[in-house]
Amino acid sequence: MMEILRNMLRRKGRTILTVTGITVGIFAFTVMGSMALRFNKMISGGKLYVTGQITLMPKGTSFTTGSGGALLPLDVLQRIEKVEGVAAVAGGVELALEEPDPDNPFGGASFGPPPTIEGMDLQSSYKNRNWQTLNMKAGRMIEKGDSDNTVAVGYTIAADNKLNVGDTFTIRKRDFKVVGIVDQTLTGPDQYVFMPITAARELLIASNPFLKSLKDRADEAGKITDADLAKLSAETRKQLLEARAFKLSDVSQLAAASWKDGQDPDVVSNRIKEQFKDDVLVLSPTKLGETIDKASAIFNAIILGSAVIALVVGGFSIINTMVMSISERKREIGIKKALGASNRSIAFDYTLEAGVIGIVGGIIGLGIGTLTIVIINSKTAASGAEIFLLSPVFMVGVVAFSFVLGIIAGLLPALRASRMNVVDAIREL
Predict the structure, then answer these.
(1) Is the model's pLDDT at 234 over the cut of 90?
(2) Across the chain, which distance is largest between two alpha carbons, in Å?
(3) What is the pLDDT of residues 84-95, one digit of tens each?
(4) Same domain, 80 and 38
(5) Both 127 and 179 in a single domain?
């Protein structure tokens, strides 16, 4: 090993430049790889959830763009629950935690879902097949029997708003009592506020002019007695009866269905599609899983492809350094061979030297990359926008990979050195 270090220090400038090339490549690999880890962690949690249910959305909407203003009436959900193989159905409501800022309607940049209200139907017996419970950092999850003004909040929501169990959390000008804080998941629930669906529906209606108008009309129509209604014209009576038909329980933007034990979820999904093709958009667990996998693969390819380019540049710098080093050390190689050194030992020495260059650059690159990640994450943690995830296994893998990269890059020059003719090498003396 001392000989290898001496050889590296013979040409300090060249060695430093080569190590720098590897450092840049490993730095890029560390940063890009940790970003991919964070993304994949988030995606894996989302995939686990959506593949544990049959997702139902209003006709004409999509999983990626949301439900817009369309709704799923309660009677439709009740009829879906009677489809063969369906165990339970629960409606849901989703809306942004804060009202949109008129001066910034698109909100700020966020890696992952923005802070979101999740309205949960606590009366339903529905359970996601893959993700039935969430670990709690403190307190408990909201449950059947809780008042409409109780919430459980995600880890990031609690940190951002400095919330503890028992605190009052004002959401869209309405006060809620925090009964639980969800433990960190590094996925969607960190940014969620879980509340009873009735309260979520009321907040949604208050924020949606169209739904608010429908509710106001329904309230006004409800004040008219049947006797007074009978005195009105047929057209007016029809309009008021239609207004009365609006019910808070019909305000569901999406729904989820679980399937009975022994049932194939895709088969159950197809049954719902066939019977309710004009009412709902049905997304099977398999289809959603495949969609998520495709999106994840494209994202990872873009991120890791950028890092690989940097690593290739670093690898070529090692090849160049070793070729030049061998060219300058022909006499040394010739003497070693004349003294009995085998081709294998010559190849091993030069290959190991390349590996040491790789690992030195790898350790420095990993160190700089880790420092960069820690600084960026600390700056973005307050807004819940952490975009990097480091793990001990990944860090060890980065160092090992840098060593292997050096070995591979130095292999060809090392083989060239081992095959050098002794007479030709000694002629350099």
Answers:
(1) no
(2) 120
(3) 999 999 999 999
(4) no
(5) yes
